[in-house]
């Protein structure tokens, strides 16, 4: 006898359930039930009692005629809070009933939270980005850049994963990006998706997430509109963002802020401080702050407002700064803003971007025999420039023989040798300061964590400028400033032209002797 349609459907369902249970992406029984219910509802096979079993009469529906279903007017209230805060340019047509609408119901946030829990259910560690991060990136890709298939957004994956590691670590570090004047669309997408991932993980661990969680400072209304268009696709995932700028009246924004608690806040410094002074919003619990275009804020003379916003936040704050490294005043302001451990990043692969805020000095030495005395002279200069401060200096020699010669010749009466198995580390003590010197040869540079050193002295220039660039771009990655000193002898003449071009492209001073050697 042929089997009926019901029997075939039951068999298909059994096979589907077995496949879900055995797959690596299997979900919990609760989530599977939600998915099955949604599938029945969409196919029109929902049971009649399914909508009323768990619903109770309410004052709005005393006879339970709606069976727990929302009225159409109630479903529209979720977009009301967002429309009240967005600038006029973003949403020129406003609903006349918007101000009369009540705040969004809690059911929407519960549904969004369930989506985040489903994406992060099996990933509560901080070792790798969760599936929810990819979900957020794909949502932004489909809304902002659907024509290229998300290639541009996912193409910044190396930079984005490094940013995620800095922000998501148990002890997060501040980030200084020197790849451009402000954040690109790809960088903003990774940044806000990282913030979403952190929120989802904290909720998964039962932690309370303050609102607003992310504060994105922008210099203009146009930039605020662009950033908010990237954050908008995250709203179905439970991440609500608002933009505050002079493009809308302050009364309009105050009334809008009363109807919602945004996770992301995109604001210009002046308007944000106005709203904070009127107690329309509280930013004391912000966990992440982005300064998008530090050079622009300096040009607008609003640096004092940036520091006021920074001081108004009392929680443990992770700061990300995007800036152009061409101006040294940017470095001094960044030093005052970033108080903890930092990580330098750059989506731009140019040497000038990767070596931002690192000072290069080339010293001339007539012969190889005088190098030891020249090294002592440079070390004394470094001691004088870092008075009353402990300095950590790396000396780079050509080979082990030269490194051992340096170690033995520099151990004078005012030097004490520290505990080191190779004898290539010692401390210089003087009335001016303290200097911890490490001597390494180029062959063992791969085993040296050069990022820890703020000052590097290249005693023997490598035959290839690329090796020098590798040292230059690796030094002082966890501090704002850094120094690279190098000793140039007559034997280094083959690299004179390339070295002079490198200094010029990095906005560094080209010594006169190097210019003469380049022209000859």
UniProtKB/TrEMBL annotation:
Origin superkingdom: Eukaryota
The keyword ATP-binding is annotated on this UniProt entry: yes
GO molecular function: ATP binding; helicase activity; hydrolase activity; nucleic acid binding
Basic and acidic residues: compositionally biased ranges: 63-74, 87-98
Disordered: annotated segments: 1-121
Key words of the record: ATP-binding, Helicase, Hydrolase, Nucleotide-binding
Biased amino acid composition, Low complexity: 26-36
Basic residues composition bias: residue spans: 10-20, 37-46
Name recorded for this polypeptide: DEAD/DEAH-box helicase domain-containing protein
């Amino acid at each position: 006898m042929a089997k009926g349609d019901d029997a075939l459907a039951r068999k298909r369902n059994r096979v589907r359930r077995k496949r879900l249970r055995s797959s690596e992406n299997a979900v919990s029984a609760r989530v599977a039930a939600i998915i099955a219910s949604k599938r029945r509802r969409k196919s029109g096979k929902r049971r009649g009692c399914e909508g009323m079993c768990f619903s109770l009469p309410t004052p709005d529906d005393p006879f339970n005629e709606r069976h727990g279903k929302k009225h159409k007017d109630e479903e529209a209230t979720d977009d009301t809070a967002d429309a009240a805060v967005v600038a006029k340019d973003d949403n020129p047509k406003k609903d006349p009933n918007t101000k009369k609408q009540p705040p969004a119901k809690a059911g929407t946030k519960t549904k969004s939270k369930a989506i985040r829990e489903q994406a992060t259910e099996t990933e509560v560690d901080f070792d790798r980005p969760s599936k929810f991060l990819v979900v957020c990136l794909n949502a932004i890709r489909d809304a902002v850049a659907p024509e290229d298939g998300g290639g541009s957004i996912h193409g910044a994956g190396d930079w984005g994963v490094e940013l995620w590691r800095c922000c998501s670590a148990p002890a997060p570090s501040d980030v200084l990006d020197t790849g451009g004047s402000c954040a690109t669309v790809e960088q903003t997408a990774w940044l806000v998706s990282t913030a979403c991932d952190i929120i989802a993980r904290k909720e998964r661990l039962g932690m309370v997430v303050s609102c607003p969680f992310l504060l994105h400072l922008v210099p203009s209304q146009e930039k605020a509109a662009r950033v908010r268009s990237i954050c908008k696709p995250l709203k179905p995932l439970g991440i609500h963002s608002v933009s505050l700028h002079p493009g809308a009246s302050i009364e309009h924004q105050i009334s809008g802020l009363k109807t919602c608690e945004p996770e992301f806040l995109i604001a210009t410094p002046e308007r944000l401080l106005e709203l904070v002074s009127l107690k329309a919003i509280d930013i004391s619990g912000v966990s992440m702050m982005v300064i998008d275009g530090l050079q622009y804020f300096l040009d607008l003379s609003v640096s004092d407002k940036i520091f006021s916003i920074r001081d108004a936040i009392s929680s443990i704050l992770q700061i990300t700064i995007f800036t152009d490294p061409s101006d040294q005043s940017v470095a001094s302001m960044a030093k005052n803003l970033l108080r903890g451990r930092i990580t330098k990043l750059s989506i731009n692969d140019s040497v000038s971007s990767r070596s931002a805020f690192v000072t290069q000095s080339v010293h001339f030495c007539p012969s190889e025999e005088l190098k030891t005395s020249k090294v002592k002279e440079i070390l004394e200069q470094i001691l004088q420039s870092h008075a009353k401060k402990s300095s950590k200096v790396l000396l780079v020699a050509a080979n082990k023989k030269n490194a051992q010669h340096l170690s033995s010749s520099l151990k004078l009466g005012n030097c004490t040798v520290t505990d080191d198995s190779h004898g290539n580390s010692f401390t210089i003590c003087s009335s001016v300061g303290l200097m911890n010197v490490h001597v390494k040869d180029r062959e063992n540079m791969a085993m040296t964590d050069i990022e820890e050193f703020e000052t590097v002295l290249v005693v023997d220039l490598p035959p290839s400028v690329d090796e020098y660039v590798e040292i230059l771009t690796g030094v002082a990655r966890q501090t704002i400033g850094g120094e690279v000193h190098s000793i140039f002898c007559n034997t280094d003449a083959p690299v004179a032209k390339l070295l002079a071009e490198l200094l010029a492209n990095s906005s560094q001073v080209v010594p006169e002797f190097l210019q003469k050697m380049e022209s000859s």
